[in-house]
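Input record (Table S2, row 422):
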Amino acid sequence: MSASRHPALLSTDPELASFVAAEEVLQAQTLRLIPSENYVSAAVLEASGTVLQNKYSEGYPGRRYYEGQQNIDRVEALAIERAKGLFGVDHANVQPYSGSPANLAVYLAFAKPGDTVMGMALPMGGHLTHGWGVSATGSWFRGVQYGVRADTGLIDYDAVRDLALAERPKLIFCGGTALPRTIDFAAFAEIAREAGSILVADVAHIAGLIAGGAHPSPADHVDVVSTTTHKTLRGPRGAMLMCREEHGKAIDKAVFPGLQGGPHNQTTAGIAVALHEAAQPSFTAYAHQVVANAKALAAALLQKGFDLVSGGTDNHLILIDLTGKDVPGKIAAKALDRAGIVVNYNTVPFDPRKPFDPSGIRIGTPSLTSRGLSTEHMPLVADWISRAVDAAAKGDEQALAAIRAEVTDLMAAFPAPGLPLS
Ligand code: DSN
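Output record (D-serine complex):
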């Protein structure tokens, strides 16, 4: 139905065009709750699909290894200036291909293989690239990991300090992928100063909240800010590294030529547009609405008897511990998917189950907020989740189909940005 939006694609490769069209329908009809996903605007979508991708541009604006950079330099310089302005940093590199390469560049800039690095353990809510064992960062470096307290689900900053002072890591990462609470960047900064470590804030999940003033900024506290551009920031799939001037050269050298070749110029253009959008008052309202929706959803889930890690949320993300529900995370996630509600299964802190079959599900409000849902809709969303989890326990496919029909109905009234077919 939407293939006519891509007439050349439809004519050249109808099979592929049909997959894209099906994905457009899926994204329009479902309630997407994966907290690291979003809907980009039509403008970001257009910028990301331009002829800029025909160009090789190894190097940086004004110092490239290829000619014909008149326009590419302007695009990248604009993205850099917008990133610096929006996040209040001295230096920005907009070339990392995504979050993991961005973090690898940080290692390359500041550490040597075998050095000790410190981050939050993956099952506690960290990220693979924060020194976790199965990642290159955990095998080329000596990763030591902190977590959250079993009784509160919150980061224990005294334990972080003890570990940092005992290990004196070269790098400390703060931030993660399943942290429902505000990160105290000032507390991390004090610890990093005491331990003599470079402090990296990986704000991939919360970059849009920071840009919109709905989460404190790390800019004045940390050495490097690493972020993807496609989560709450609502840009294309890419990443940025931002830092104080003193680290700018090391970061740039690590990204190129240290780790990457030519930047993806079409992505840089999309990032520039997303940063422009994020600087508007409407984005500030969006970021605050994301948090308000998440708090309202958490409250409604608690009322339904769900156990939430840390008891709720301060940001866009909610981690549901299903241990008490007799339905493990994967079964619940797959049942919710059949009900038109897209989440991901996730470990919870101290999870007795394995990562591929864990106890939790992770949800968030960036996407539904982009579609215009507000706090008044959150009790209904919680009710759908509750009914779907109950249906999963009973194997009641009819109930899941009924929820799916209700979800499709509601989503039709809230057109998805960039997808006129809703
Ligand atoms: N894959 C991202 C997420 O879903 O949080 C982290 O890299």
